[in-house]
Amino acid sequence: MADKLDCVGDDKKLDRANANTIKDFEIAISKCREIFEKKLKDYGTSWRVMRPSSLTDQIYIKARRIRSIEEKGDDNMKVKEGVIPEFIGIVNYCAIALIQLEKGSGEKIDVEEALKLYDREIKASTSLMLDKNHDYDEAWRQMRVSSFTDIILQKLLRTKEIESHDGKTLISEGIDANYRDIINYALFALIKLAEQG
Question: Cβ neighbours of residue 6 under 8 Å, at least 6 residues apart?
Fold first, then answer.
């Protein structure tokens, strides 16, 4: 990653748990970024044509597949890819969706700009995670991966509802906040799955 997770202010002192979380996130993010960069080389930025609502549906498909694997077991699936590529896809499509929310759908951009935008969105999302992680005392480490899947699905359904209201909410966080939360829950899942081996 370009500048790692330098999203924590210099004046903050990290405890051991938060320092471990930053390291775990950096490892998970580097895997996601590697896939994102390779796909950029294969496909360019063809995703620039997609509207955020279409990206929400794409993320939903990936989350539904994860839940299907969790419920049926990987042995009962016809495509034997497991859940890790799907969680990576969720992270990357959420970053793309955040880019599209800002820029709108449009013409392709060059690979370097796409990577800068990707890094910016991931950094903003992980900064949010670190703030919440401090407040919630790393509660996610005691959660099941299947709970992350359900929370991601819930946030996608919320996002679809907000999209049906033209992005307007009365008191709730907006679409971008849901995408950022989904990125972090998918990264939590990737960290937990790596720990399980």
Answer: none
**pTM metric for this prediction:** 0.89
Which range, 109-118, 122-131, 168-177, is most confident? 109-118
Q: What token pair was written down for 130?
A: 């670190």
The string of DSSP codes covering 64-105 is HHHHHHHHH-GGG-SS---SHHHHHHHHHHHHHHHHHHHH-S
Quote the CA–CA distance of 98 and 117 in Å, as a whole number: 9
- In angstroms, the Cα distances linking 77 to 4, 50, 153, 172, 193 are 36, 29, 20, 37, 19
Residue type, 85: P
**DSSP string of 145-191, one letter each residue:** HHHHHHHHHHHHHHHHHHHHTTT--SSS--HHHHHHHHHHHHHHHHH
CA angle 86, 87, 92 (to 5 degrees): 95
What is the token pair recorded at 111? 């690979």
Q: 89, 97 in Cβ contact below 8 A? A: no
